[in-house]
Amino acid sequence: GAGVSQTPSNKVTEKGKYVELRCDPISGHTALYWYRQSLGQGPEFLIYFQGTGAADDSGLPNDRFFAVRPEGSVSTLKIQRTERGDSAVYLCASSLTSRLVDEQFFGPGTRLTVL
Amino acid sequence: DAKTTQPPSMDCAEGRAANLPCNHSTISGNEYVYWYRQIHSQGPQYIIHGLKNNETNEMASLIITEDRKSSTLILPHATLRDTAVYYCIVRVTGNTPLVFGKGTRLSVIA
Is the pLDDT at A102 greater than 90, yes or no? Predict the structure, then answer.
């Protein structure tokens, strides 16, 4: 079956611009996560959705970052007034809602470059 | 911060077993040990997890010490496609975020 997909695969923008990154989770997965990975580092948690609501947004670095999941499926990560330090690979993952089966399936990521 | 310590890099000859260590001396009683790997330019991939008993699946084996302060991921017959960064993570089960450290970069050499 289809895995997690993310679009675009690459995004180049200028400092100060607004960007949206999209994640399509595996069908039926109610949990959705966003992570950010800088060069040479492990992924860093940003936000977690259970259904339509953000269950944990403690990883969002500041109020320029916002994410939505209006229908409990597709999610969009929105970054306002981008800065060069926002350059990273943004990863999305989804999983079933279960204590016993909690494997997170990751998408290939969106590489964001802020010039 | 990650609650695990892993060597930054390891080499392994193709066809040999790759043994990747992980220290997690502050693990709590309800926390499991998870392993994920990340092949270049891909998202991380789940490998295996366990609480205190040794676990085996089609990808790997996980050996956890009796005091649960360390573990070893074993790839029994490493191939070139196993070259990746391997992350050891401790967490409770259920829908909680993964906390990644820097992992171990495993290079499988022909």
Answer: no
